[in-house]
């Protein structure tokens, strides 16, 4: 693959103009949007307005005048089409961890005769920690975590399992799980499914409703570009909403929060998953960031994501000096999210050297060098430049210099 072919790919890119909607630093190739999305320009102006005008001038009136009180619902409805959900099933609030606690409790209460939460050994740790914490709270008779390899999920779906907790895209390898198949198989065994969409929402088509999903969580700060610590979201299928209860019965989840009744009565809608007062500045930032998606075809995002990763792989293969980089992600693009993982004994040092050279990748223990592809603002020319710099770093052995081997540091 030559440079002229790369230029042609950029010229034919239907998403190329989207890059102009982001405030990207000069002389930086950003391949870590799967950890923290880049800053949309609209967010800068929205946050300034919320702080100086809405809060600064209108003060408490803004809860009504600027719909602060409705932000969790309004933002949730903007997320819904990105994850294949009809209205009334997505709410924006809290963090993935807190939302998982709520959904795990709800799912277990719907399956009271069973106690096993089945998940994968390489699931993102916070998902597993939340199950462990709930198990300590309730006792193993009511909640018990069982971990299996990703390839063994199907064989472990049995009558003891109450909840199947899965992340659609593996945070290390990028392996994409088959949501439709696994949800169907779980339902055939009477198992409810919670999907973590942290690495798939905004990166590929997610079809919660079409897959008959039960519950899902996701974050706002990766592919949705809502900013560091951006509020998360959760999904509860409409068919479950009247029957479920969640344990964090904060006032915003009350059926009539401003009646200020001393006795809690949860809403029978998705609003029951609200807890405390929403973080207005953070949620306003996410609200503005989601406007970037209004005219985006998610299938085009997926097509470009696959193309960016495939070009990256092909270019790596043209450099003999990169032969020690072992691809840990599948080469089958249909079974991969929007990232690539390579293992190398010096992955951390290589990552640090790349960052010094202006290529922002990231490291995941124990030896993974990870590159994320965010189609709304990543160009094919940047992929060419990134691999060229990667080859220079490895061939020159720049990464062996002491400053790149700081034990205990992460990116």
Automatic annotation (TrEMBL):
Cofactor(s) required, per the database record: pyridoxal 5'-phosphate
Record-listed E.C. numbers: 3.7.1.3
Residues that bear N6-(pyridoxal phosphate)lysine: 222
Pathway(s) per entry: Cofactor biosynthesis; NAD(+) biosynthesis; quinolinate from L-kynurenine: step 2/3; Amino-acid degradation; L-kynurenine degradation; L-alanine and anthranilate from L-kynurenine: step 1/1
Residues annotated to bind pyridoxal 5'-phosphate: 96-97, 124-127, 167, 196, 199, 221, 251, 277
Keywords, comma-separated and alphabetical: Hydrolase, Pyridine nucleotide biosynthesis, Pyridoxal phosphate
Domain of life of the native organism: Bacteria
Enzyme class label: hydrolase
Role description: Catalyzes the cleavage of L-kynurenine (L-Kyn) and L-3-hydroxykynurenine (L-3OHKyn) into anthranilic acid (AA) and 3-hydroxyanthranilic acid (3-OHAA), respectively.
The family this protein is said to belong to: Belongs to the kynureninase family.
Protein name from the UniProt record: Kynureninase
Protein source organism: Pseudoalteromonas undina
């Amino acid at each position: 693959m030559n440079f002229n072919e790369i230029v042609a790919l950029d010229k034919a890119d239907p998403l190329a103009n989207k890059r102009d909607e982001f405030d990207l630093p000069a002389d930086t190739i950003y391949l870590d949007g799967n950890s923290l999305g880049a800053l949309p320009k609209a967010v800068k102006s929205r946050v300034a307005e919320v702080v100086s005008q809405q809060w600064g001038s209108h003060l408490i009136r803004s809860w009504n005048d600027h719909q602060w009180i409705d932000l969790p619902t309004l933002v949730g409805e903007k997320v819904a089409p990105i994850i294949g959900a009809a209205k009334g099933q997505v709410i924006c609030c809290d963090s993935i961890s807190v939302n998982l606690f709520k959904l795990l409790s709800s799912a277990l209460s719907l399956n009271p005769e069973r106690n096993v939460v089945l998940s994968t050994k390489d699931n993102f740790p916070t998902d597993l920690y939340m199950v462990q914490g709930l198990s300590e709270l309730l006792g193993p008779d009511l909640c018990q975590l069982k971990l299996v390899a990703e390839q063994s999920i199907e064989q472990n779906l049995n009558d003891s399992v109450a909840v199947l907790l899965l992340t659609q895209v593996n945070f290390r390898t990028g392996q994409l799980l088959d949501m439709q198949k696994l949800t169907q198989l779980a339902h055939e065994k009477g198992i409810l499914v919670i999907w973590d969409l942290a690495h798939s929402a905004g990166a590929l088509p997610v079809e919660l409703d079409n897959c008959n999903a039960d519950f899902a969580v996701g974050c706002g700060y990766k592919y949705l570009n809502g900013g560091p610590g951006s509020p998360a979201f959760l999904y509860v299928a409409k068919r479950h909403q009247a029957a479920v209860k969640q344990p964090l019965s904060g006032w915003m989840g009350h059926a009539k929060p401003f009646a200020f009744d001393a006795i809690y009565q949860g809403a029978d809608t998705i609003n029951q998953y609200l807890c405390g007062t929403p973080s207005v500045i953070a949620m306003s930032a996410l609200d503005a960031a989601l406007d970037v998606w209004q005219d985006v075809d998610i299938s085009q995002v997926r097509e470009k994501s696959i193309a960016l990763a495939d070009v990256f792989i092909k270019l790596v293969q043209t450099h003999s000096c990169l032969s020690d980089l072992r691809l840990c992600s599948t080469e089958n693009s249909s079974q991969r999210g929007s990232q690539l993982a390579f293992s190398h004994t010096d992955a951390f040092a290589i990552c640090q050297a790349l960052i010094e050279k202006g290529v922002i990748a990231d490291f995941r223990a124990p030896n993974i060098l990870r590159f994320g592809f965010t189609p709304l603002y990543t160009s094919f020319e940047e992929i060419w430049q990134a691999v060229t710099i990667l080859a220079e770093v490895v061939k020159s052995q720049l990464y062996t210099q002491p400053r790149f081997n700081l034990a205990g540091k992460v990116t």
